[in-house]
Write a sequence for this structure.
């Protein structure tokens, strides 16, 4: 036997009171743990996902929505912008690099992002198998998408329109998996990446049916585009026979045309080549110089039909908005902890009244005053230590449930089981509560007069 | 002499002073301290146990003047050398029988008696892991005796150990304490007003309020 065992025996001797106090404290600490974890990981994730993106340019609307949809892929896109405007912007001397993106489709809720290979280098991704897309409808899966969907290299699937599950399927042309990325721990994990052309052609599939009968000009345009693409193909593949054949059957040969353009290499950098008035959804912009941060957003917002939004600015605005909620939660946590501290104090103080004899007996069999002091402190401290451990465990479990239920959302990929050094402070904080709550009972145990206690008849 | 008191004087605040007669005991000797309620016999017990400090006089156990020890040393000395049996068993409820004994062992650095052996001698072997609140009155009192004896004390002090026991148990408890005192060569002092005990121990002093 020793003092620690004895204090433990006393705690387990009153399981209900002990349990209630531990639980109260654990709940308060769990809230703090979750807040700590979310704050740390969220901000880290937010910064990490937005690294290298100075400005996002997209259709007019809410700037926060623009950032959320095109950097973090959570909200709905604000709309599309004409590609020629985007191209014009990308040629500005203030701009170092731009990455165009075409959004708006999903596969089982995972967003399909049409972009170019610059996006891959922006996040410095590595391939766990396969390679980047070369032709339309070739896709690269983020690690999480691959894991959850079970798709492998060479598998095909159909995308759906819209950014959430349940929209109608684009069943005209399947996407084919040519690469799977390594887990990166960032937004890329839950994306299906492909070329902008893939996204365009998916949507073309559905419109021509009406266009063929209603609008002549667009038909012409289509033909022009095909011609242009054929020329490219000639240059690259020198497949004369096939080309000639195509030209002869121009009128009924729509399918063949499609086939041809579908095997045409896509743009790996910059904008896709097209003669049509195509749209892109957003443009990720890197500044050439700090000056651009001052001039470029103002220029875009006042002189064009597009809007520019800065990820860092919008995110700090978002955190400001969330701040109130976080403060309320923090307040609640502190109230819970204070109540549990009070509960522990009352429990110890009450049990001390019942235990005056026990304490006196301990003195009589050789315990010093100081050892009794330690005994009571040990009880308070082991109680709060248990509370701290349970609280941290609860916090992490809560987060893992949150992350598991929000696979495609912004909480996805939150690491529930990484531990922060700040959690050590939670333990220290809890122990402080324990010491404070047991200080008065311990002092009163220290002062117990054994002679009076033991011989009182 | 193993144990001696000399000129012990003590007064509770606002009350008249007690002046106790001197006591001296050798190893294995027993002594009854008799007296009416309020005669000060409990005060004398507290002085002997070092739970109270006398205003004057001395208490010497095996060469140590215990009234001169400071509080911490006194606690340790008491744990190692004085085994106290109370009127009520006062066992620690969260612990089982053997753990109660081992708790007393913890506060002492001396090599004490073997707990299992001691429990066997007190016919408590089969209760060694019982929760103490499931013991009968007599069993509980025997456990408290075992606890007092576990560290091989030089002095065994008992405060009204038989007052809540029936005749059979009372006799058994006193006999046990005598046997054990003889076995470990300790002095035994029993404070009581129970005349049943007088039949077993003839050596006594009477405390009278002066």
């Amino acid at each position: 036997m020793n003092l620690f065992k004895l204090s433990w025996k006393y705690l387990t001797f009153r399981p209900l009171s002990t349990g209630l106090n531990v639980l109260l404290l654990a709940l308060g600490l769990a809230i703090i743990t979750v807040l700590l974890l979310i704050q740390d990981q969220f901000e880290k994730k937010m910064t990490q996902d937005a690294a290298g993106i100075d400005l996002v340019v997209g259709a007019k609307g809410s700037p926060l929505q623009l950032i959320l949809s095109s950097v973090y892929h959570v909200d709905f896109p604000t709309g599309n912008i004409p590609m020629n405007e985007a191209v014009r912007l990308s040629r500005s001397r203030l701009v170092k690099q731009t990455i165009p993106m075409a959004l708006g489709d999903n596969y089982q809720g995972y967003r399909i992002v049409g972009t170019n290979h610059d996006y891959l280098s922006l996040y410095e991704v590595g391939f766990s198998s396969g390679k980047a897309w070369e032709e339309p409808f070739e896709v690269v899966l983020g690690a999480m998408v691959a894991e959850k969907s079970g798709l492998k290299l060479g598998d095909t699937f159909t995308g759906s329109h819209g950014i959430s599950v349940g929209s109608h399927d684009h069943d005209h042309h399947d996407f084919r998996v040519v690469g799977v990325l390594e887990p990166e721990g960032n937004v890329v994990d839950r994306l299906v990446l492909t070329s902008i052309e893939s996204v365009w052609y998916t949507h073309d599939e559905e419109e021509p049916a009406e266009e063929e009968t209603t609008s002549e000009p667009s038909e012409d345009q289509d033909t022009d585009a095909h011609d242009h693409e054929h020329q490219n193909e000639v240059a690259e593949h020198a497949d004369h026979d096939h080309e000639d054949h195509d030209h002869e059957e121009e009128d009924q040969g729509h399918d063949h045309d499609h086939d041809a353009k579908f095997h045409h290499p896509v743009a790996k950098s910059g904008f896709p080549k097209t003669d049509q008035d195509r749209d892109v959804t957003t443009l990720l912009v890197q500044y050439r110089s700090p000056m651009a941060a001052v001039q470029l957003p103002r220029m875009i917002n006042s002189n064009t039909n597009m809007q520019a939004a800065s990820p860092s600015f919008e995110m700090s605005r978002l955190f400001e908005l969330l701040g109130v909620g976080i403060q309320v939660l923090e307040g609640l946590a502190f109230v819970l902890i204070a109540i549990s501290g009070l509960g522990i104090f009352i429990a110890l103080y009450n049990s001390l009244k019942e235990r005056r004899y026990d304490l006196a007996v301990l003195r009589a069999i050789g315990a010093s005053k100081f050892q009794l002091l330690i005994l009571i402190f040990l009880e308070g401290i082991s109680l709060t230590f248990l509370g701290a451990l349970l609280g941290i465990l609860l916090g992490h479990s809560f987060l893992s449930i949150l992350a598991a239920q929000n696979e495609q959302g912004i909480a996805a990929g939150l690491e529930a089981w990484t531990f922060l050094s700040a959690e050590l402070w939670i333990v220290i904080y809890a122990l402080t509560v324990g010491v404070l709550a047991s200080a008065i009972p311990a002092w009163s145990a220290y002062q117990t007069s054994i002679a009076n206690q033991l011989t009182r008849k | 002499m193993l144990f001696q008191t000399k000129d012990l004087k003590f007064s509770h605040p606002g009350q008249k002073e007690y002046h106790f007669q001197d006591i001296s005991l050798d190893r294995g000797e027993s002594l009854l301290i008799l007296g009416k309620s309020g005669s000060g016999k409990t005060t004398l017990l507290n002085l002997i146990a070092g739970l109270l400090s006398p205003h004057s006089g001395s208490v010497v156990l095996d060469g140590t003047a215990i009234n001169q020890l400071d509080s911490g040393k006194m606690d340790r000395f008491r744990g190692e050398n004085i085994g106290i049996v109370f009127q009520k068993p006062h066992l620690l409820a969260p612990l089982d029988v053997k753990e109660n004994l081992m708790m007393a062992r913890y506060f002492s650095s001396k090599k004490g008696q073997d707990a299992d052996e001691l429990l066997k001698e007190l016919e408590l072997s089969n209760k060694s892991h019982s929760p103490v609140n499931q013991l009968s009155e007599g069993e509980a009192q025997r456990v408290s005796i075992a606890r007092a004896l576990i560290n091989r004390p030089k002095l065994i002090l008992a405060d009204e150990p038989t007052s809540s026991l029936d005749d059979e148990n009372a006799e058994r408890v006193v006999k046990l304490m005598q046997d054990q005192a003889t076995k470990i060569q300790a002095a035994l002092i029993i404070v009581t007003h129970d005349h049943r005990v007088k039949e077993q121990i003839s050596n006594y002093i009477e405390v009278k309020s002066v």
Observations:
- The CA atoms of residues 309 and 450 of chain A lie 74 Å apart.
- Residues 3-46+322-455 of chain A form one domain.
- The first strand of chain A starts at residue 55 and ends at 59.
